[in-house]
Amino acid sequence: MQKKLNFVVKVLRNILLIPVFFVISYLVPKQKKLILLGSNLGSRFIGNTKYLYLYLVEHDVKDLDYYWMTKNRKIYEKFKKQGLPVIFPYSLKGIWHVFRANYFVVEQSMQDVSGVAFTLGRFNVINLWHGVPIKKILFDNKDDQKGWFSYFMRKEWRQYKYIITKSKADIDFLKSGFRNESVVCLGYARDDILVKGEKKDIPSLDLSKYKTIFLYAPTFRDYYTDLVPFSESFLDKFNAFLKENNGIFLIKRHIADQNANRNIKLYKDYSNIVDITYSVDNLQEYLTSVDVLITDYSGIVFDFCLLNKPVIFYSYDYENYIDNCREMYYDYYQDMLGPFAKNEGELLRLATTLPEWFSNQEYQDKYKKFKDKFNYYQDGLSSQRLYNFIVKHL
User: What is the pTM of this model?
Assistant: First the structure.
């Protein structure tokens, strides 16, 4: 009961504040060099904005006055102790800086750096976005076209001065999804660490003792489904293979998946299968340690292919996903790289015969075309490009 009451109070407060903040946003002058960065609705330190922020810190830039905005007290206190530029948005200083900022630099929405009450008003946003879309997004997704969400998102997206992508192939899709023509191909800051081959150990796991590291990283499901990717029989067989061949299978569920605790089940403790969902927050930092990616309809494949390593597309619920979750921008079986596993048997076969298909020259040629199509820049300089772009457009 108390939670419901708190929610109602929060909604009413935002409704009252929106018109007030709208007026104030037009009265307060912008500070030309001030930019505010944030991610994941202000709760986490991840994504393209994270790596752009780290670039600004590491290069001690002087032509921008920048801050990381976080609603997470642990991140805020950690940054303060390290002497990093950080602001808590729900403070007088935070509110003042939101009004004064020349740009919000986000990767999901304005709420990465501010609250719902700032949705309308005079705010300039650069959205670095968080992935090349395979599945339809925003206004191209039929479920996002409904009700109050549609109304407020339309208002917010009008304030997006620029939307950043790393692939010219998806420019038109982003323009359509956002109903915004200002899409610019500059590359993703988070990909720089992949191009440079920077590795990071997964907490509590010594991956160096394994010959082959498999990772399963699926996208989310919009609705609950009884379909599961792995049966107990499959996991038993795959674990036996991994044990015999000194491999390990890591599972990382999507943070936004409503089925996170339902659709991926480990039926017992396995010696060579580990669920890292809650021990790994920012998966990007660990991709260089992975040897084989198994995914479904996730845009993670476009980042991972920069490493020139094997990818298996596991589409065990394709028809159900298209019918009940989201349609796709691409012809999945035609435009994606492959190989495709439509069931556990095919997945086990592909996972246990990697050298046979991955070393095939025809497949290697297809891999390169795929990588080049979805990664216009592969020089590890995307953070620098983004920084130069922002300075140029102050």
Answer: 0.90
Q: What pLDDT is attached to residue 178?
A: 85
Highest-scoring range by mean pLDDT, 53-57, 90-94, 169-173: 53-57
Same domain for 170 and 212, yes or no, is no
What does the pLDDT look like over 334-372, one tens digit per residue? 999 999 999 999 999 999 999 999 999 999 999 999 999
- DSSP state letters, 82-108: HT--EE-SSSHHHHHHHHHEEEEEESS
Is residue 245 within 8 Å of 212, Cβ to Cβ? yes
CATH number of the domain residue 45 falls in: 3.40.50.11820
CA torsion 381-305-364-251 (nearest 10°) is: 160
- The count of structural domains within the chain is 2
Q: Which amino acid is at 248?
A: I
What digits encode the pLDDT tens for the residues 168-199?
999 998 988 888 889 999 999 999 999 998 77
pLDDT of 139 reads 76
287 with 346, same domain?
A: yes
Residues 233 and 165 in one domain: no
pLDDT at residue 21, as a whole number: 75
124 and 30 together in one domain: yes
**Crossing angle of helices 47-58 and 382-392, rounded to 10°:** 80
**Backbone angles phi and psi of 117, in degrees to 5:** -65, -15
- The domain in which residue 84 lies consists of 2-187+380-392
Rounded Cα distance, 375 and 163, in Å: 16
Statement to judge: residues 137 and 203 lie in one domain:
no
Strands 292-295 and 311-314: parallel
Residues 80 and 21 in one domain: yes
Which three-class secondary structure string do you get for 242-301?
A: HHHCCEEEEECCCCCCCCCCCCCCCCCCCCCEEECCCCCCCHHHHHHHCCEEEECCCCHH
Q: Let me know how many helices (H) and strands (E) the chain has, helices first.
A: 15, 13
Report the CATH number that the domain containing residue 254 is assigned in CATH.
3.40.50.12580
